[in-house]
Amino acid sequence: MAVAQGITGEGGQYNGRITLLVVMSCVVAASGGLIFGYDLGVSGGVTSMDPFLKKFFPNVYRRMKEDTKISNYCKFDSQLLTLFTSALYISGLISSFFASPVTRAFGRKASMLVAGVAVLAGSALGATASNVYMLVFGRIFLGIGLGFGNQSIPLYISEMALPKHRGAMNILFDGGVGFGILIANIINFGTQKIEGGWGWRISLSLAAVPASILTLGAIFLPDTPVSLIQNTNNHQKAKRVLQRIRGTSDVQAELDDLIKASSISKTINHPFKKIMLRNYRPQLVMAAAIPFFAQMTGINIITFYAPILFRTIGFHESSSLLSAVVVRSFSTFCIFIAMFLVDKLGRRVLFMIGGILMLATQITIGALMTALLGDHGGLSKASAYSVIVFICIYVSGFGLSWGPLGWLVPSEIYPLEIRSAGQSITVAVGFLLSFLVGQTFLAMLCHMKSGIFFFFGGWVAVMTAFVYLFLPETKNVPIEKMEKVWREHWFWRRIVGDQVDDKHYKLEE
What we know:
Strand content: under 5%
Shape: globular
Order of helices and strands: EHHHHHHHHHHHHHHHHHHHHHHHHE
Largest sheet: 2 strands, antiparallel
Number of strands: 2
Low-confidence stretches: 1-11, 499-509
Mean pLDDT: 82
Structural class: mainly alpha
C-alpha cells in the first residue's frame, strides 16, 4: 500500500501537541483580526453620531434632522460619507498586492510589522482630524495596515498550527474580527454620550491598542518554520522553532515536507503567473470565489451600517448603537462556537448550516420591512424588535459559516509555491467587494429599499449551492498535502487529474 513519505500518525497527522508558544503566537497574530473588526465597527458607529456628522458631513446631518420629505431609506445617501468608509478598502486592495512579495521575500512577521505600524499612523490621523481630508488619509493608512495584515496573518496562523487544530486556531483571526466589531460598538455607545461632542475621537484612536499588540508581537514572536526555510534556508533554526511550537523533538517528518515544499517554491519566480496554470485552477477559483461570496452575504449591511440601518427603521442615536452591540454579541458568540465545531464537523457542514440560517432570515427581514416600513415614519416598537431578533439570527448564521470560514479555507488550500499570491488575490477580492458594497450600499438602500435583503438573500442561495457542489472538505488535511482533496473531488479531478505529481509527493511502497 502506497503512503506519503514523511507523514506520521493516523490520518496523515504530524507529531505534536498544543503548546503555550503556538497559542500565544496565534492569539497575538489574531490581534490583526481585532484591528480589522474594530475598524469595521467603529466607522459605522461614528457615522451615526450627531457631532461627527455635523462637523464633517453637515449635509447628511441637515437631511437627517430637518428634511421631513426625504425617504427613510435615503437620509444617509452621501458619496462623501461612503468615501470615508470605503477609502480603507481601496487602499487595502492595492496594498495587498505589495504585501505578497514582502511576505514571500521577508517572511510573515515582516508584513505583520508593516501592518501594525500603518494602523498606528492611521489611528493617530483619525483621532486628531480637523477636516474630512485627514479622516480619509487616516482611513487610507488603516487600509494599508489591513492589506498587509490580512494577507500575512491567516498564513502565519495556518503555518504555526497543527493540521488537526488548524481550523480552531485560524478562527481566532475571525474571532478577533467579531470581537473587534463588538468592542467598537460598545465604545461607540459609550463615547457618543460624552458631553462636548468629541467622543468620536476616542473611538477612532483606540485602534492603536490592538495595533500595538500586533507590532510588539511581530518583533518578539518567532516566524513560522515555513518562512525560515523559505527565506533563510536555515534548516536547523527552523527545526528548533518547529520543536518549540510542537512540544516534541520528533518533528523530522514535518520538517522534511516543509523543506520539499520550499524547494519547489524556490523554483517559482512568478507566483501570480503560476497560479493561472491549469493544475492550480481549483485554488484560483476559490481564491476569488470565497471572498466574493463572503461579501455578497450582505453582512456589510450589518457591519458597516448597523447603527444607520437601525436609525432608518426608527431608533434614536443611542438605541441604534445599543442595538448594534446586541447584534454583534450574537455574531461573536457564534464565531467562538464555530471554533470548537470546525475541526469536528468540518467546513462544509458549517457552510450549509450558516447558509440556511442567513437565507431564511434575509427573506423574513425583507418581507417585514416591505410590509411595515414605508418612506416616512418608522416601525412600531414590536416590529422593530422583531427585525433585531431576525438580524441576530442572521449574524449568528454568518458567525458559524462565512465569517470564520471565509478566512480559514483560503489560508489552508494553497501550496507553498503560490501561497502568498493566492492569499493576496483572496484579500484583494475581499477588499474590492468591500469597497464596492461600501460605496454603493447607501445608494442601493435608497433605491432598492427593503428589496436589498432579497438581493443578498439570492446570493446566499447561490453560494450555498456552490459550496455544496465545488468545495471539498479540508478538515484535518495537512497544508502540504492539501493537493489530494482536489484530485479526489468529483469535479476538480477532471481539471487537475487524479494522479499524484511526483514533484509534490514522493511515494514509497
